[in-house]
Fold:
Amino acid sequence: MLLRQNILRHAKRINVSCTSNLPNFDSVTKQTLKMVYKPILDELQKVEIKLHNIETKMDNIEAKIDKLEKLVIMKDNLLIIKEDEIDES
Structure:
């Protein structure tokens, strides 16, 4: 999430710096702007999709870790119960 925010913040900076550096900005046509910004926006969309995929994978990994932690706790509880049964015998 933080990485996505940083990328979007830098994209805004690129947007401002590109428009402020253009001579006679008012006379620049929409077509020219599309030619300049379209590749940048396309790349940003690809990066955003990749970030979303990474976040989804991280969520899946976290869920698996949670399951493993629960299994370890269950295993520990079973070992304690077994030790108690052995001690009683």
Q: What stands out?
A: Residues 25 and 69 are 59 Å apart (CA to CA). The helical segments are 2-21, 30-88.
